[in-house]
Amino acid sequence: MMVLVWSPAFVRTVKRKTRRYPDLLEAIEKSLHRLEMDPFHPLLHTHKLTGHLSGTWACSVDYDVRILFEFVQNPESGAEEILLLTVGTHDEVY
């Protein structure tokens, strides 16, 4: 099980998106739970990004919505955590 760290930008984006599309909240919550349990769960379609987003990973919430994140080390415990960066449509996040 991984620890999810919500960046301030991720929190703002989730609030904005779910205010506009309330049905999206449940799908985001399911994806975050899967990501926490197994970052490479087949339903997430997790993949590493290249180019200007090199070092960042993406997973799917639904057909068009993605969550961008990074694997980071916790400075205190040394444990690997997932830093949630943003959420949005394919065109918005790439």
Keywords:
about 90 residues, 5 strands, five-stranded mixed beta sheet, globular, alpha+beta
Compile the SSE list and pairings.
Blueprint: E1 3-6, H1 8-20, H2 24-37, E2 47-48, E3 57-60, E4 65-73, E5 80-89, H3 90-93
Output the structural class: alpha+beta
Helix fraction bin: 25-40%
Estimated share of beta-strand residues: 25-35%
Number of helices: 3
**What is the CA-atom radius of gyration, in angstroms?**
13 Å
Order of helices and strands: EHHEEEEH
Strand order of the largest sheet: 1-5-4-3-2
The major sheet is characterized as: 5 strands, mixed
What spatial form do the alpha-carbon principal axes imply?
Answer: globular
Topology, number of strands: 5
Task: Give the rounded overall mean pLDDT.
Answer: 96
Report the end-to-end length measured between terminal Cα atoms: 27 Å
Q: Report the uncertain regions.
A: none
Describe the model.
- The chain is α+β, with helices and mostly antiparallel strands.
- The protein has three helices and five strands.
- A hairpin with a 4-residue loop joins strand 3 (57-60) and strand 4.
- It is globular, with a radius of gyration of 13 Å.
Could you provide a short overview of the structure?
This protein has 94 residues and is an alpha+beta fold. It has helices at residues 8-20, 24-37, 90-93; strands spanning 3-6, 47-48, 57-60, 65-73, 80-89.
